[in-house]
From TrEMBL:
The lineage of its organism: unclassified sequences, metagenomes, ecological metagenomes. This is Rubredoxin-like domain-containing protein.
Length: 47
């Protein structure tokens, strides 16, 4: 699993996985974490 993650709140380039696959930033505890790197689907996200 080479997925990279970045916190959109503080920009910290690392996130931790907690129970139920929730991803949190260990710095600011934000859940607003964005995955970047390997893209499997090339479609823009639909709002």
């Amino acid at each position: 699993m080479d997925d990279k993650m970045k916190c959109n709140g503080c920009g910290f380039p690392y996130a931790v996985l907690r129970m139920q696959d929730l991803v949190f930033c260990p710095l600011c505890d934000s859940m607003d974490v964005e995955h970047y790197g390997k893209k499997e689907i090339d479609e823009p996200e639909k709002p």
